[in-house]
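Explain my protein.
***
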Amino acid sequence: MKKSTKTGIFFLMIILIFFGMGFLMDFIPEKYSTTNLSMLLGQMSIAVPLLIYLAVTKGKPLKDVRHEKIKIEEIIIIVIFAWVCMPVSSFLNVVTMLFSDNMVAGSITDLSGNLFIVNVVMIAVLPAVLEELTYRGMFFYGLRGYGVVASAVVSGFLFGINHMNINQFAYAFLLGIVFALMDEVSDSIFASMIMHFVFNFNTVCSIEMLKLMPILEKMQDNPEYQQYMDKSGEIATNLSGYSTNMKIAMLAGFGIAAVIAVIVNFYIFRWYAKRIGRWQHICECFRDFRHGFAKTEQGHIISVPTVLGILICIFVMLINIL
């Protein structure tokens, strides 16, 4: 069986098990049906098919995964690179909030009751390990034979579309490509794990900031507290409460920051690649980009199961919008 078909079946399995977990949630009593449980089941919908896939393939896909050790100074560079990427993801977040909800912001309030370490593990550590092993480990490295940049684009697209909402798809798609390219230049999947952790840890910090707001602590016993939080959540998850001038100002501000971030990160990426002797390799990968989507002896990089999984995700996204 061709690698693209194997990874396509794996992707379809992730989608189907995800819906199975959602179906399971319907049978859980409402008082236990929390955001925490939903997030854990979401990670299980990745872990379970990953384990099944590795068991069926006898772990062979793991042989394709690069895992060179990363030096301390390289970790620092990768962390800085991740931080500089944030204005770009924030800009895409604001753009999509014009016509869709910010799903992450909508769950922050629910997670503010957790201990810090619980949120770190659940929000930052588990996704960084499981999602990177899946989308960069199995998809990017699994499809790498079709072309590095082509596999980065496809694995990034699958990473984004699997979030099943427009808001997260926009920035997850882009970040998925960046994560894969950073893996390629560092020759290690640990690079994308670090970047993924940094991004999600930023969310954990936002939750901690929410806890530290004295005004919210004082309002917890107020009967109007829940009403206030509902209103706050609605404004935080979309831009419907903002005036046109405010929306334009936000887009302009975040847009300028995003452009600056792209320029700065290009030079960081190039400097890092040259520093470890991988810049010429990356340039050659981009020159071969178009060939990755052409039909080869291995078939197409996108298989029928992959297309089926993508169509299911798009269908769910359209339902959420409508």
